[in-house]
Amino acid sequence: MKLFFKILLLILFFPHCNIAQQAKIYSLHKLFDPQPASGDFIAWKNEGILIPIRFESNSMNRIKVSYSGPNADFQIFQLHDIWADFSAGNCGETKTNGTFEKIQVPDRAERKPDLTIVPTEENQWILVFLKFQASTDAGSFPFVLSFDQQGKKTEVAGSITVKDRILRDLSDLDFYSDFWQFPISMADYYKIKPWSEKHWEHVGEMFELLRQINQHSITTSVFWDLYNTRIRSLDEMMIQVKKSTNGSFSYDYSIFDKYVELAHSKGITGQISVHNLFPWNGFLFYFDEATSKVQSVQTQPGTPEYQSFWRPFLLDFSEHLKKKGWHDKAVLFVDERDPNMTLDLAKWVKNESPGFKMGFSGDFYPFLSEWMEDYSMPMNVVVDAGEMRKRILSSKKTSLYTSCFEKSNQPNLLLTSDYRDIYFLTLLSKAKGYDGMLRWALNLWSTDIMNSAIYSDLPSGDAHLIYPDGQVSVRYLVLKDALEEISKLEMHSKVQSPIEMLDATNRYFLINIEADRYQMLQSMKNYLND
Quick check: 45 and 70 in contact, CB under 8 A? Predict the structure, then answer.
């Protein structure tokens, strides 16, 4: 009996004695199927590294995280589970009608500036970020990560080899990201009025996150967003289109201008991609003063109805862009539409308003290429070397993209993708001689996106890379890391030709064979850090 009371007193007055703790470093592959890692890392100066930690404890007390090791910027992210499904390669009806296994993936990354985490489960994922300063000494050093819960501590140790090379800032990278933005989706998620003061704050936050992954392009639309699946009010249009009682059109560019100017203020000053000229659903919209309602008309390029609507817009928009000094940056973008109709549209646009640039995402068509100043293609497309040379010599932009069509064994940026595939996709784009990588949705959020990425018609993660409230995904952080690998490759290229390594990356079978793909990636990593 006396022993029982002694134990009880120990528990009451020294509760941390009852805490069972364990922390381990894991590979940055698939955190939902974790594989232990050695804890040995290599980094250049000015490079960041990501270290996934799974902290296990039967206590829900706060966790204070600390780091000791070579001089570095030290950050931590608490990872939150998001529901996902294994539905890669299934879009639209095949996804809607299918049945897919569900799993929770630690994808939502919440930065903790105070280095303290309130665990939400006994197995808590933590992502550690270390960025080594240019002044950091080169050499091999031990490091220790400590986790403290009310005085009860556990540690994980590893080693870091800091190379005597300084990585350039990503802003100097000759390789861009192009993630299409959905600002109206943001307003809907937060349940605020589009283009209200609060909405603009969130848009500015979005641009700041985009700048960090070397985003160059600003996604704009004539109407509400890229796909306009429902009619909204006139004041929510990015460019407000009005039809007067005499049949003439007028345009209010104030929201469009503010959107572009805000992007510029955040450091995104490149291309202005303008969507809606050839939309998926074929609808165009305008506010009709005769009926005091927003009207919709379904039409196709080449028809008299289509041309009578878009001709005055192109002429007026062209003049507006010239006044703003933006005409040379504007690209009228067409997404996966019929190539022959797109060609006819491009010819018509350039005839009606010479000087406009055109962009296209979809399969490669040589007859279309010369008309497209910006061309993005799926990763499995092989462009003839002569056609690629033409694009390079004429300073036309070319990029790679993935979407919902890639199969489960193929690289993508889904929640169920292996993170190594993000490195592969950036390297593959570089190996093909492209200028960057595009993806169709940065933030097309559902109402429950903070908990679930299961969509009725899309694979999990296909529609978003970032989360609300300034939070990002692990995929976003891995992409930043992958861009640093591209920066290393560009710096290597100034010293020695990496052509053999790039050719190895561009072998077609790697798209479908995961084991060979990851072996190649490890070889590339060894080469870049050699």
Answer: no
What's at 249, amino acid-wise?
F
* CB-based contact 15:150 (threshold 8 Å): yes
Distance, in Å, from the CA atom of 71 to the CA atom of 131, rounded to the nearest integer, reads 9
Q: CB neighbours (10 Å) of residue 92?
A: 11
pLDDT tens digit sequence for 65-88:
999 999 999 999 999 999 999 999
Q: How far apart are CA 503 and CA 500, in angstroms?
A: 5
d(CA 120, CA 112): 14
Report the chain's mean pLDDT, rounded to a whole number: 94
pLDDT in tens, 498-510: 667 677 778 888 9
User: Please, are residues 195 and 176 in contact by the beta-carbon 8 Å criterion?
Assistant: no
Q: Which DSSP string corresponds to 180-201?
A: PP-HHHHHHHHT--TTSHHHHH
CA distance 255 to 235: 9
- List the structure tokens of 349: 């646009």
CA distance 281 to 230: 11
CA distance 286 to 299: 14
> Can you tell me which residue has the tokens 């989360």?
467
CATH tag, 170-228+266-283+298-494:
3.20.20
Buried b / exposed e across 352-363, counting CB within 10 Å, b at 16+? ebeebbbbbbbe
Please list the residue range(s) of the chain that carry CATH number 3.20.20.
Answer: 170-228+266-283+298-494
Could you tell me the two tokens for 185? Answer: 């989706």
Enumerate the CATH 2.60.40.10 domain ranges in the chain, comma separated.
Answer: 18-166
Q: Which two tokens stand for residue 311?
A: 């001709």
CB atoms within 10 A of CB 155: 13
Q: Which residues pair with 345 in a beta bridge?
A: none
Helix (H, G, I), strand (E, B) or coil at 409: coil
Cα(387)–Cα(406) distance, rounded to whole angstroms? 25
